[in-house]
Amino acid sequence: MATHHARRLPAAAAVLLLVLLAGGSAADDASSDDDAGVPPSPGCSNKFQLLTNYIAIAQRGECAFTAKAKIAQTGGAVGLLVINDNEELYKMVCSDNDTSINVTIPVVMIPQSAGKKMKGLLDQGARLEVQLYSPNRPVVDLSACFLWIMAIGTIVCASLWTEFVACEQVDERYNQLTRKDGPNSGTTNREDKEIFEISAKGAIVFILVASVFLLLLFYFMSSWFVWLLIVLFCIGGIEGMHVCLVTLLTRICKDCGQKTVQLPFFGEVLTLSVLIVPFCTIFAILWAVYRHASFAWIGQDILGICLMITVLQMARLPNIRVASALLSAAFVYDVFWVFISPLIFHESVMIAVARGDNSGEAIPMLLRIPRFFDPWGGYDMIGFGDIIFPGLLVAFSYRFDRASKRGLFNGYFLWLTVGYAVGLFLTYLALFLMDGHGQPALLYLVPCTLDQTRPDKWVSLTQP
After folding, report:
1. Angle, vertex CA 423, rays to CA 421 and CA 425, nearest 5
2. Which of 4, 12, 101, 263 has the fewest Cβ atoms within 10 Å of its own Cβ atom?
3. Where is the signal peptide (predicted)?
4. 141 is known as an active-site residue
5. 35, 171, 374, 386: which one is catalytic?
6. At what angle do helices 413-433 and 142-160 cross, to 10 degrees?
7. Is 319 helix (H, G, I), strand (E, B) or coil?
8. Are the C-beta atoms of residues 2 and 436 closer than 8 Å to each other?
9. Residue 22: strand, helix, or coil
10. β-strand 366-370 against 379-383: which pairing, if any?
11. Are 241 and 302 in contact (CB under 8 A)?
């Protein structure tokens, strides 16, 4: 989710700005004790020294960027450096309804590491000279293209997984749009694989529960709460990675799927499974330990993709009516918590939760990839829900096409996949045209996918 759009500060990015810092810089009031040698800051308190002809330094947090800038300007500072709480750089924005902005000094955000180094030198009495510049961002973010391919590939892979990787037969009860109810309706057990079929009532209940959980995150977001989500993500990632690896290796070496071992409490299990579980566990633990490293996105994406493939195998839609109910409810959910929630909660609940807590921790339930070609750095991200919800419909369309013996071009699967690709492209296009204003992806994905299942399309698709 992109950051909430608002007006930029007058000079948020300085071009070749020559700055002289002579020990009169300040750190934020909320900084740690190791900043005690630095004079009071123009952070969120009006208690500050006169900063005439100096550049002030403040830590990000506690109050709005505009509040920090106003206090620094009132103190006579000729500029303000805001130290971010991590290495990524973001646009410094203000609320859309803030009409009292009158900031004329340049305000620039710098990475956490640069801020620590500068404050350390200032504590030693050094005199610093800094040059700041604003590089041009590329018009087309190629990293977003890679993420677009990852999302589409995950859905296609999950749809084809059962037949081409797991080598299972398509359920023959998918022979019409309204699936036949059978004795295995609901939660079934097919070759020791649990399949949960979503009902229309269950879809609505799920969206309501997700809304309640989102509110809990919004009001009680803290490092321990995020850590709980990280642990749950690791558990789900371990299970997903285990299932995917066992299925792939069994497909490559059929003998591996025949050897079993007897274990206490678990009974008879595959020997391959016993060997794979420790590897997956170590992989997830290493990701959790090094989740802030520059390479951590690789492990997060691997765990996330395996988890989503497994979820799309276990959770299935029984018919197009349930699909319509689920996606319509998800559509309303996404739009409400991004666009309408600020009218009630004074800020976008979805964006606030996606941003994480003040310690720099963020929820891990998303795919992300660094902006390799963007000098500003940062990540492009997409939430699991933006892949799983439309993915359930795409996976259902593939099972329906195979059961009804439809070809690639006269079936639903190809066109739903194309619809998802177009919807995701429109999401990124909207982000670009609206200058980073937070966009609910399902606002574009749901119409582009459900549109491919209209009754008039059924007629055209059945024609020779």
Report:
1. 70
2. 263
3. 1-26
4. no
5. 386
6. 160
7. strand
8. yes
9. coil
10. antiparallel
11. yes
Gap between the Cα atoms of 223 and 201, Å rounded: 34
Query: Which among 242, 380, 383, 403 has a CA at the least distance from the CA of 316?
Result: 403
Tokens of 15: 């071009």
Q: DSSP for 249-308? A: HHHH-GGGGT-EEEETTTEEEEHHHHHHHHHHHHHHHHHHHTTTSTTHHHHHHHHHHHHH
Quick one: tokens of 277? 């579980």
Domains of the chain: 55-124 (3.50.30.30), 146-167+196-460 (no CATH)
In whole angstroms, give the CA distance from residue 281 to residue 235: 8
If you average pLDDT over residues 364-393, what whole number do you get?
88
**By C-alpha distance, which of 295, 375, 444, 416 is closest to 133?**
375
Q: Using 50, 70 and 90 to split pLDDT, how confident is the model at 222?
A: confident
Number of other CB atoms surrounding residue 129 within 10 Å: 9
> Residue 109: what are its φ and ψ, rounded to 5°?
-90, 140
**Residue 246 CA: distances (Å) to CA of 27, 98, 122, 196, 315:** 53, 55, 56, 21, 19
Catalytic residue, chosen from 334, 357, 374, 401, is: 334
Three-state SS at 128? strand
CA 368, CA 383: separation in Å to the nearest integer? Answer: 9
User: In a 10 Å sphere around its CB, with 0-12 CB exposed, 13-18 middle and 19+ buried, how is residue 225 labelled?
Assistant: middle
DSSP letters, 35-49, are GTTSPP-SSSSS---
The answer for residues whose C-beta is within 8 angstroms of residue 130's C-beta and 6 or more apart is 18, 19, 21, 55, 118
Sign for the CA dihedral angle at 145, 151, 157, 160 comes to negative
For residues 160-184, one letter each, b for 16 or more C-beta atoms within 10 angstroms of the residue's C-beta and e for the rest, the string is ebbeebbeeebbeebeeeebeeeee
pLDDT tens-digit readout, 329-370: 999 999 999 889 988 988 888 888 877 665 667 789 999 999
Count of residues for the chain? 464
User: What is the band of 414 on the pLDDT scale with cuts at 50, 70, 90?
Assistant: very high
Task: Supply the angle between the helices 320-335 and 442-450 in degrees, to the nearest 10.
Answer: 160
Cα–Cα distance, 416 to 427 (Å, whole number): 16
Residues 411, 389: contact at Cβ < 8 Å?
no
336 secondary structure, DSSP code:
I
HSE-CB of 247 using CA atoms within 13 angstroms: 21
| Helix intervals (H) in 96-179 | 112-123, 142-160
Residues 55, 63: Cα–Cα separation, whole Å: 19
pLDDT of 86 > 80? The answer is: no
